Amino acid sequence: MEVKETDLGKEVKAPMLPCDINSFQNAKRRLTASQCFAVLSDNLIKQKVTAETKMSFQIILGSASMARRKILAEMGYEFTILTADIDEKSIRMDKPEELVMVLAEAKADAIISRLQSTSQPDEDAHATLLITADTVVVYEGIIREKPSSKEEAWNFIKGYFHIIPEEIIDSLIEEGITLDVAGGLMLEHPLISPFVEAVVGTTDTVMGLPKELTEKLIHEALQLL
């Protein structure tokens, strides 16, 4: 199934990701929420976790993304942050929906391995959910990850949307933030948002952590504990 996401006057076709709990049956304490510049299905049922349940487990966010931290905090969760030290460029897949899944899983594996090597068993410890994610942009059939240089980031942004003045692109590049996001673009950035004509779906999906899907997966993962 394909859905369309329209940004800055352009339509981007993105495959709907197979993000359901069946993908995680063999990892009861690991939750991977991956997405690929895709739009959440409207029929996802939002499952709220009660405050009582929230106190019975802890969350680790395996991401350096400020956007993901912001979104998870907005959802009302307390969490700790651990980042995975992996070479993302060494992991390749032809399909973007497969690439983000294997990257997110590789991040989770690296963090779990680190935790297992440094932590002592504690029978009284709360259950832990590890959330990792990855985002790539697909433009004209080509996967774009984080730019490797300022020049590449500049070319990415200029190539997407010719209506953005060069001085604005220069300002974005000088901030350095374009090197930290897939495709070099943050739709929620105040310099970019005035040029956004429409977003079909949810902005939090584009930012890197879809709230509805994350809430649903947390709820389902807790049923496995």
TrEMBL record:
Annotated keywords: Hydrolase
InterPro entries reported for this sequence: ITPase-like_fam, Maf-like
GO molecular function, one term: nucleoside triphosphate diphosphatase activity
Domain of life: Eukaryota
Protein name: Maf-like protein
Pfam families: Maf
Coiled-coil region list: none
